[in-house]
# Entry
Amino acid sequence: MSEHSVAEPVLFNAVIYPNPPISRNGFILVVGGFAVLSGVIGLATFLAGAWPVLGFLGLDVLALALAFSVVRRRARAFEAVHLVRERLTIRRVDHRGRSAEWRLLPYFTRVELDQPAGHLSLVRVRDHTTRVHIGAFLTPRERAELAQALRTALGSAKTLMPL
# Structure
């Protein structure tokens, strides 16, 4: 067995997803309930002689369903952070499946987070040539936890570095 075939121990591995906006069953319940309510109101206005209202209520249901579909589709995005002794790899995949990847040297990598962590603060990961923001869709508390866990793992990688 050669030296290159031995897998490096993984020091940190995280896949970060946005919080799902609503489950499939929740989507059906909300849009279905809204459609039933709009149907009842539409029937009442139709019987009262205001039949054009029925079309607008149908457009409201369609707009709600479309908005939920767009948000659910965008929730497919993710970021993967993988650290082994000699490299930190950050891979970002957007909701369309397009990906970008960055590789940083752990010994030179720093993790920064605005203090106190707020809704607009980002986790910044940088080395001497690369700067990447990660965790934009996390809550401030989750960003702080991610930054601390990654700092700890990078510290472990630095102690394993050969002199």
